[in-house]
Sequence to fold (433 residues):
Amino acid sequence: MGKCPSCNEWNSIVEEQASANEKKQRGSVLSKNSTDPLPIFDIVQERFERWQTDLSELDTVLGGGLVPGSAVLLGGEPGVGKSTLLLQAADQYAKLGKKILYVSGEESVSQIALRAQRLGVKQNELLVMSETSLEKVYAQVEKLKPDVMILDSIQTVYSEQLESQPGSIGQLRECAFEIVQWSKARGMATFLVGHVTKDGAIAGPKVLEHMVDVVLYFEGMAAQGFRLLRSIKNRFGSTNELGVFEIMAQGLRPVTNPSELFLAERSTQIPGSVIVASLEGNRPLLLEVQALVTGTYLNIPRRTAIGLDANRISLLVAILEKRGGLRMHDQDIYVNVAGGLRINETAIDLGVTAAMLSSFAGKRVEGQCVFFGEVGLGGEVRAVPQATERIKEAKRIGLKRAYLPSKSAKGMKDLGDFELIPIDHVQELASKI
Fold:
């Protein structure tokens, strides 16, 4: 059947043929009394132990450290450094006295050993094997009883209980279910590496992400010297944390001050360049936003955004024309977040608007200032959350002044020589900068 009669999706129905072996009796391992309902106020809350390492950025994205018995799914483009990150993490957990089982279905043990030598991994508690059979991996788990298991990758593993090919929807669902059950029953933390599709999503059924406790995405362009680790699901912490790693000859190094990294090559002599204060999870980030506004000979001017929502740029241009009285309908407008980071927060609206005004007028913005604030359709500048944390980050790297919403500026004290310039409307912005 080509089309599913339930969801109307094409080519989504797959055949699963069970082998002649007896079916396993499955039971929940999440709780000893999982079949007995309990009053919610009588349930004793468990305190999760966390294993922390020198990879501080990984610990931050995991919510403060790795929780025993958790299942973590890590996705990313080929060659981005997933295996390198997990091998370094395995070395760190081994230093804590934990037994690690690293299972690779894509590389031989000699290839893993070669990478380990380059990364300086020398822990005896780190055991490596190359295997794709789920049943053989299970036998080693029963024998070794590891504290952490790393499986690279889940798409290469197959179960002998099913006759479908490795990487098929049935195999992925069955193998992931079994591995998560192992983790919960033994208190074994598990990392699963997942391939991604051309659209950037983790390959396989969406149920794969529902089964695990944490879903991480490792991203970064090949030409850049850093990688970003994001959490989009975390049952033990925040889902919006961001970790930054720098690529070194000895592997990945955590970057504890990403603002300085993103602003390292900024030029203060070019119009259209400003610093904005964004927020990733609980971490404030200072980034450079560049804008280029130039006349066009096209009937329909270009509106190009890199690292931002292009629709948001068109909206801000319309606000500047209607509320700010500027003539920008015959201008090509290009906006870029320097460094390759993608920002979805509306708090950078004020900074993007200032960058476009600066480029349109051909006058540079003073380099020691930062912008944040949301711009409404009426041209008003609205308050954004955690303004104090953004100001503290700006002061830490040596900035002297901030353009921010008037409501956010009220009540701020003990800023020393740091100057606050409140903005109520976009019409004020051109004169004040």
Remarks:
- The chain is about 25% helix and 25% strand.
- The chain has a mean pLDDT of 88.
